[in-house]
Amino acid sequence: LVVVVSDDWNATTATLQKFEWQDDKWQKIDDAFPVNLGRKGMSWGLGLHPTQSGNYKVEGDGTATAGIFNLTTTFGYLPEANTDMPYQPMSADHYCMDVNNSHLYNQIVDKNVVGEDTVKDSTEPMRRDIHKDGQTIYKKGIVINHNPDNISGKGSCIFAHLWFGPEVPTAGCTSMEESKMDALLAWLKPEQNPRYFALPKDEYKKNMKVWGLPAL
Question: What is the dihedral of CA 19, 216, 207, 48, to 10 degrees?
Fold first, then answer.
């Protein structure tokens, strides 16, 4: 379990703590470390949690996703990564579709497969080092499985990825220092059904017992 807790819904920074289920309880793994969130904080995403009252993420709103989500795949610029998780190397032709009403919304696609016209309006080239003036934030990343039914307009391309720097907010993802990403990728095991959980601390404490979450 990857647990991200912020001070409140509007906070653009948080802390990340890794947990494993051992001896019938959640055990902390390593020390917590800082991460960045969306420039507008957090709002509820579409994941494994029950329907909630409050604001839900929509495309382009600048919020990171709150709730619990599967972690299933990883990606990056390099041919291989030090992880047991499924890994997809990105090329200059890979895009994540953030175009409302696209039949490929919220999916990473290859321009050579789907056609250049299909990806022309996407603002999410996966090789940002090539398309975005050398940006390295997608050099290593993890797909947070928000909006698994790919409902148009409900938020797309939600990742954990490298940061521009401390306290620099994202467009809606969770970002971190590269060494912390390296450790996270090496620790995740697909057979252990890894999940990502993010909430403001008051909301976390309110749901902790009901959802079986580790104590902070």
Answer: -20
Arithmetic mean of pLDDT, 21-30: 95
Report the alpha-carbon distance of residue 156 to residue 139 in Å, rounded.
19
- CA–CA gap between residue 83 and residue 62 (Å, rounded): 29
Are the C-beta atoms of residues 88 and 182 closer than 8 Å to each other?
no
Which residue in 168, 200, 199, 202 sits closest to 1, CA to CA? 199
C-alpha 169/C-alpha 62 separation (Å) is 9
The position carrying tokens 């090789």 is 127
For 49-101, write each residue's pLDDT tens digit: 999 999 999 999 999 999 999 999 999 999 999 999 999 999 999 999 999 99
How many angstroms separate the CA atoms of 83 and 74, rounded? 9
Q: For residues 99 and 60, what is the distance between their CA atoms, to the nearest angstrom?
A: 10
What are the φ and ψ backbone dihedral angles of 205, each rounded to 5 degrees? Answer: -65, -35
Report the amino acid identity of residue 151.
I
